[in-house]
Amino acid sequence: MGKKQKKKKLPVLFIGICVIPTVVLTLIFKIYPTVNTLIMSFTDANLLGSGTFVGLHNYTYMFQDKYFILALKNTVKLLAVVSVVTIAFSLILAFILTQSRLREAGIYRTILYIPNVISLSVVAVIWAFVFNARMGIVNSFLDSVGLGMLKRDWLGDSNTALWCIGVVMIWQAVGYYMIMHIAAIDGISQEIYEAAIIDGAGKVRQLLSITVPLIKNIIGRTFILAISGTLGMSLSLAKVMTGGGPNGASSVLTYYMFQQGMMQGNFGYAMAITVFTLIMSLGLSFLTEAITEKE
Amino acid sequence: MTRKIISIMLVVCMCAGMLAGCGNSSQKETAGTDQAGEESNQAQETGTEEEQADAQTGTDNAAEEAEAVSFEGQEMSFVAFGGGGYSEYWEEIVKKFEEAYKVTVNMEMTPQVNDLLQTKFASGDVPDVAVLTYDGSAIANAVVEDHALMDLTALFEKPGIDNEAPLKDQMLDGLLDSTAYAPYGDGVPYFAPTSAAPNGLFYNKTLFEENQWEVPVTWDDFFALGDKAKEKGIALFTFQGIYPSYMEIMIPAQIVSALGVEGLTDIYSYKEGSFNKPEIVEILTNVQKIATEGYLLEGTLSMNHTQSQSEMMMDRALFIPCGSYIVAEMADAPRTEGFSFGICAPPVLEEGQLPYTSATANSLAIPTNAKNPELAMEFIRFLYSDESVKLLAEKSDDVMALKQGYDLASEYLSEDMKNIYEIYDNANFFSVSWEVMPSGCNIAITNYMYSVIADVLTGKMSVEEWIDGVEGAFTEINSYK
């Protein structure tokens, strides 16, 4: 008995040796910079890190800074629309590919996933040409179908620049979440769908009444990922496609943070924007989780 | 037992060898220093003997000799910009400097020189000299704000290598004491100019010759030419739409023509009321007219630098604001047959006003904590030698910011570059940089000054609102002073 207990004892030393490098790396490259970011957000530090303590000035100043408010509004618009549309599209595509029994489902899955493996900068450059007013295919297409009056400088127009970035985000991310949803839908017993078909349920009813409720926890998780993905992608796309313009119309929090920190050298303020963005995304993640858990 | 004794002996020998190595090294260093000291003394003595024969010449020679001796064997670190043709220039000139002074230069060359300097300054491991330009970049702003650069007055008081006049008198007029090189506004240089290549409005010289078009001087000429170009289906103007700060080449030059360098210096020092002047209203209204009256190339606002520059080179727009780096940047870009670069100054408000043009400043700086600032200064002095000026032109198609720079360089410059330097036949040169932001102020002035241009051109913002926005920013900046 005693021998058995001895055998069951955890190899603490071995586990410790395995875990310590990860813990140390996490402390150095994750925890320390995060704590440092928080500390710097209370200073007027420049690019070299020197600065004096300014209390909450950076945080209060944010809400008087019209370019920050514009970036915040744009970010909220993107989060509200892009995250929801991405998850909705990916769910519909996943449902179609799993339930329609298409022979070529594998090809569609691959094609839809490909944008996710292309470098974001390359994606941004390609789409900048797609939306180009003079040689882009969007305006050429509109011309060819007789809708020339809808032609415009898509990225140079403050009404459309942000949404062009949104379209690219959806195109880029939808395949990734689709794969996750396909995996989740595959876990639902086929008998439930068969029973629903016997009861006369159509495809839309099956999607809304069977698929969505049964994988709602996964949808909640993917929605959280979509929120962080949207925030993450927004910097590269805004920087390459529009430079945050015209006049801040497509600027987002991450881009404004980059502009203040790396271009202007206002590191203290940029760190405050970073902390604000972090708190905002954490808040949204907790909110999403609370809603999906509650239901 | 015998093996143990042999092992111990081997260990003892090894340790002794190590210690002996240390001993030799220190002895060598001491010997070297002594030798240098003796040579230095000898040099001084020689100087004294020569002084008796020819006081002036003797002193100069002794000073030169002493300098040469004192630098021999020394080391310095250098962070250089590697890109375009500059890599080759830096490699060769550093080699020549090492040979001439018998010193070692540890050079790090990268196209991302500002990124490298950021880590070096932040860690305290600064180079002795670096390619660093006060151009509004975050690193330049930070080192100026932190007073992390050395006053270079002593360097510019020194005579040149090939010309005995003090270096400050050899530099292009109006350069050294401008805020681009003397960032604190007191005329004390902290940046040493290398090249100051002209910016301006670029056009296809061949297209102008074929159509017998005159280069416009005033805004009226500019718009009249725009009407002629319209008939041929060519837009008058385009710019790097998603990077609106390229308009800094277009607007400040006109302000200098209308209000003088002082007028622009006031604006760049955030002086309240300096931007709200009738002349500036007139200039900005003309800028707005480019779009509202149909002179702007369609799609300009969403174009990046290479796209818009290509449009000019394909004769879809007559003018684009840019620096002379356009020649290298667009070397592989498609262009119309016979295309050749021409450049002119931005238009002036009235006939009789002097056209002005800015320059793309390139400079070097020595950090305050540099380990060998004397050698670093001597290196910069060496860069102003005739040999270096010629090499810069040959390898980088660029001209050193010296009065004699163009004459020395011209035989090595490309035809395009020669065309570009012709701008100085008709336009004056100015150099002004933004004053460093007061501590704690988070305003990005370029947003208020240039990002708004998109809204002004599309009619979403009036010129008055543009001016009010800039003046509002100035008021806020001054509240931090």
**Portion in helices of chain B:** 40-55%
Count of domain modules of chain B: 2
Taking the sheet with the most strands of chain A, its summary is: none
Give me the CATH architecture of the largest domain in chain B, please.
Answer: 3-Layer(aba) Sandwich
Radius of gyration computed on alpha carbons of chain B? 27 Å
What do we call the CATH topology of the largest domain in chain B?
D-Maltodextrin-Binding Protein, domain 2
How much helical structure, as a percent, in the residues of chain A? over 70%
CATH hierarchy, class of the largest domain in chain B? Alpha Beta
CATH architecture of chain A: Orthogonal Bundle
Q: Could you describe the largest sheet of chain B, including whether it forms a barrel?
A: 8 strands, mixed
Oligomer: heterodimer
Assign the CATH superfamily of chain A. Answer: MetI-like
Measured between the Cα atoms of the first and last residue of chain B, the distance is 82 Å
How do the helices and strands follow one another from N- to C-terminus of chain A? HHHHHHHHHHHHH
> Nearest-angstrom radius of gyration of chain A?
24 Å
How does this structure look, described?
- The complex is a heterodimer of chains A (295) and B (481).
- Chain A has a single domain (58-294), classed as MetI-like fold (Orthogonal Bundle).
- In chain A, 74% of the residues lie in helices and 0% in strands.
- Chain A has 13 helices and no strands.
- The longest helix of chain A has 34 residues, at 66-99.
- Chain B has two domains: 75-196 and 360-421, D-Maltodextrin-Binding Protein, domain 2, CATH 3.40.190; 199-359 and 432-478, 3-Layer(aba) Sandwich (D-Maltodextrin-Binding Protein, domain 2).
- In chain B, strands 1, 2, 3, 4, 5, 6, 7 and 9 form an eight-stranded mixed beta sheet that branches.
- Chain B is globular and about 65 Å long.
